[in-house]
Amino acid sequence: MKIKSLYISAGEKNVGALFVSMGMMEVLKRNLHRVAFFRPIILCKNIRDKDIDFILQKYELDMEYEDAYGFDVDYIENMIASKRSDELINELIKKFKKLEESYDFILCEGIRKAFLTPTIEYDLNMLLAQNFGSSIINIINAKDKSVQDIYENILIEKENLLSHECSHFATFINRVDERDYLKLKEKLKDSGENIYILKEVKELDIPTIEDVVEVLDAKIAHCFNACNTRAVRGFKIAANSVETFLGSIEEDNLVIVEADRSEIMLGIVAAFYSKEFANISAILFVSNTKLHPNIQKIVLGLKDYNIPILSVPFDSYESAKKLSHVYSKLRGSSERKIALALGLFNFSVDIKAIEQRIQTQQSEVMTPMMFEYKLFEMARQNRKKIVLPESVDERILRAAEIILRRDVADIILLGDEEEIKESYQRFGLDLSRASIVNPNESALMEEFSNVFYELRKKKGLS
């Protein structure tokens, strides 16, 4: 019997459920025209679920938001407390079957068990997957765990699946430390299970300005091009003198400061144009303070200055406390992280084996999205080098970064190395994996000039 649905189950927060959902949706949309996304349980019906919004938007699924979820946590817990569990399961099956009638395949993403009350003693995700007839994809969080702990978690999950008589599709072990990767791979080599090991990629764990804005409910006082997607690797409170502060800043720091510290603001501006200081990601004004009008004129009148400014009503201590609880999230606007995540998924997972297990039938419909996926896959299998002469153009640099992060081609940028690096760093990009060749200094310049002359001399080139 063909698999017509998969159920992604994760017990913990921040384990990468959306990341796995995105990777699996890539596989499904590559092969099927009509795919649905369904979350049986969401946190609150009055707040739009970010995972649903992300998948619907990125994959342009032909379905309404209201059809993509069952009920919220309050409704679920009230039904269970009222001993109406069977009625609840039947209602969810009805919603699921309605989707099944209209779509070729359904990808379900379960609720994290941590979001449910401890009084629910059974695994609701397993129960729902069993009743939907879905095969389970379970995700195990390997962060800060030893190889033995991970292995024991795999055995526990396996026993849990057997006890619920659920069909197991695959296990994803996410956020595995680089140092433990080979040890874990060796320990699991004879397991006979469909287990995929995904390394911890630090950049996927680094929050962006958009994550900061969401958690702090910050106002964006000044935003420059694509400022929301900038990485925030740490924060510094500008409480000392400008000389001491400048000596402490590190790459992609968010600076917490009161706006009336004009000397700090002028120091930040000067450091931005100096090659001797790290680039900060943003400035956070606290206590609702505002820039002096003359300092604001200086900032807004600067050429190429692009450090965003955020504002919050609370003080520096409270701001720092809240920032320590900011976590990275995948968002529709996070093109760089999406490209990096998909590159990791494709590297770590046997895509062809998954496709064979799903037993999908190739659709004769070729949507623009299917074409894009096929194109990336063809590029990955027949890797080429792309030479880009317009190496300081922002659009070219952003596109080049996506190509590198999706790991589908090698990039060569033509031009002055220092100028190119300065350009992509100013836009908050990372093209360190690209090769840079300065034609004016290349040993191949004369050889290429002669070849070009031979090819064009019959057309009057002299």
Describe the structure.
The chain is α/β, with parallel strands linked by helices and 462 residues long. It has 3 domains: 5-201 and 332-358, Rossmann fold (3-Layer(aba) Sandwich); 209-323, Udp-n-acetylmuramoylalanyl-d-glutamate--2,6- Diaminopimelate Ligase, Chain: A, domain 1 (3-Layer(aba) Sandwich), CATH 3.40.1390.20; 383-459, Rossmann fold. The chain is 43% helix and 16% strand. The strands form 3 sheets. Strands 3-2-4-1-5-6-7 form a 7-stranded parallel sheet, sandwiched between helices. It has a 5-stranded mixed sheet with strand order 8-12-11-10-9, with helices on one face. Strands 13-14-15 form a 3-stranded parallel sheet, covered by helices on one side. Strand 11 (282-285), helix 11 and strand 12 (309-311) form a beta-alpha-beta unit. Helix 13 packs parallel to helix 16.
Shape category: globular
Strand arrangement, major sheet = 3-2-4-1-5-6-7
- How many independent structural domains? 3
- Tally the helices: what do you get? 18
The N- to C-terminal Cα distance equals 70 Å
Sheet having the most strands: 7 strands, parallel
Radius of gyration: 26 Å
The average pLDDT score comes to 88
> Unreliable stretches, pLDDT < 50, 5 or more residues?
360-365
